[in-house]
Amino acid sequence: MYPTRSTCTYEFNGLPRDRIQIRFTHFMLSYSGGRCEEAYDCTGQDSVWIYVDKTNRNANAKAFCGCKLPPQYMSDSPWMKVRFIAQSLQQDPTVTGFSFQYSFRTACYFKFFQSYANKGMFTSPNYPGIYPSTKCIYEFKGHIQHRLNVTLSNFDVGYGSCEDEVEKSDYVAYSNFRDAADKGSKRLCGKMRSTHTLISDGAYFRIEFVTNEVYQGRGFKGRYEFFRGKEN
């Protein structure tokens, strides 16, 4: 139970290359607008605001209320602020507030080895929330005579032409080589209703997720699985 008519601010300042990521582990705020699991309008409600822009303008912040756990969030700079605003007039013993974990990250880099797991999941930063301006690398390394199957779903990355350097769309690229582009691959961007499947030529595969400040989307969810097969 938290006090009424109160405001708490949590401000995070990292080193120049740092990015701040927060993950809520509990969320239960007083909500009078209907079912708390379906809260969508936080006007006049107890709420948590996440700021990633130092101007502190509400137009550039995201508000959460009710009792549905917010998605993970990652900043696109070494700064982030979380503000809790309690506007309720009476305390409710069933309303327990919120808790979250935070971490400072210097790079968006993920490695997946078949020796640890034959299959699994991965996502864009903050999924299913809004992804930040960033560059993420996902590297996959399988056993000899094994290949990789990757399925991307709920894809919402950039817009327009993925290859157009003028539009500078966010995109996902992939390659069978560690330090070089794959001439046979094409960038992926836009919104896809269906899943998109990628199959590696050999035991190594790399996915790059590149974004900027022009467009913000939900990103993607990925599943991967190594399978026995000869290299192409």
From TrEMBL:
CUB domain mapped to chain residues: 1-105, 108-227
Keyword Nucleus among UniProt keywords: no
A single cellular component GO annotation: plasma membrane
KW Disulfide bond (keyword) present: yes
Keywords: Disulfide bond
InterPro entries found in the cross-reference section: CUB_dom, Non-NMDA_GluR_Accessory, Sperma_CUB_dom_sf
Name the record gives this protein: CUB domain-containing protein
Pfam family, one: CUB
